[in-house]
Specification:
Layout (H helix, E strand, L loop, with lengths): L15 H4 L4 H11 L2 H18 L12 H31 L8 H8 L10 H10 L1 H5 L11 H27 L3 H36 L1
Helix pairs in contact: 2-5, 2-8, 3-4, 3-5, 4-5, 4-9, 5-8, 8-9
Length: 217
């Protein structure tokens, strides 16, 4: 990981698609200072295609459509989900980063976090092959037949990409907010814990309401 206080004069031009894998902080600083919001949206549009394709696993609501229609749907949905997801993530990390005296702006976080979509680009060809060769094994949760040979490869690669994307995110938040990695990790961990607790409370409340409603019938 690069030191977050690297100066502009020392920073060479980088290729975000390649450098983000091993140099998230350098890439983030380059993204913040050299690239536009439009470029960030382009990154998300490409990367989130891999996300939406991987989300097809056990997605029965699209199982009756042709693979070509599903691909078109994913191409349209990718930039929309990317913008919404990144905008929300940027808001949360911007707000909670202030707890650790982070100096990043919302724009910095938005452009930086768009880089987390890049690793998912490598998933695109694997899920396209899976979709066109064996769509039933991809989207049918009750599929009992033999899985294609690349099933385990796609799943393993997905797990690796997700884990590495999380590692990259820590570096991005650290650089955007100019804080150490451990503070960036807490910036991500604290809201995650809060949302999990709120979700559990919501499920308990809904369960109780549903139980009361059933008891009154």
């Amino acid at each position: 990981m690069d030191n977050y206080n690297e100066t502009t004069q020392e920073r060479p031009k980088v290729n975000p698609f390649l450098s983000i894998w091993l140099h998230p902080k350098r890439t983030t600083r380059y993204m913040i200072e050299e690239k536009s919001i439009g470029f960030a949206i382009l990154l998300m549009s490409i990367g989130y295609l891999g996300v939406t394709l991987s989300d097809l696993i056990d997605s029965t609501f699209l199982s009756d459509w042709s693979p070509w229609f599903i691909v078109i749907f994913c191409v349209i949905a990718a930039p929309i989900s990317g913008i919404i997801g990144t905008a929300f993530s940027a808001l949360i990390t911007w707000l909670f980063g202030k707890l650790f005296k982070g100096t990043g702006t919302y724009s910095h976080l938005f452009k930086g976090l768009s880089l987390t979509a890049i690793p998912f680009i490598v998933l695109i060809p694997f899920y396209l092959i899976w979709l066109f060769t064996s769509p039933e094994s991809l989207m049918n949760p009750d599929f009992a037949g033999p899985y294609p040979w690349f099933f385990w490869l796609a799943i393993l690669l997905t797990i690796v990409v997700v884990i590495w994307s999380i590692v990259i995110t820590v570096g991005i938040v650290a650089e955007a907010h100019q804080i150490p990695n451990w503070m960036a990790f807490l910036t991500l961990l604290i809201p995650t814990i809060i949302f999990v607790i709120l979700f559990i409370i919501l499920m308990i409340v809904l369960f109780l309401i549903f139980g009361i409603f059933i008891g009154m019938m």
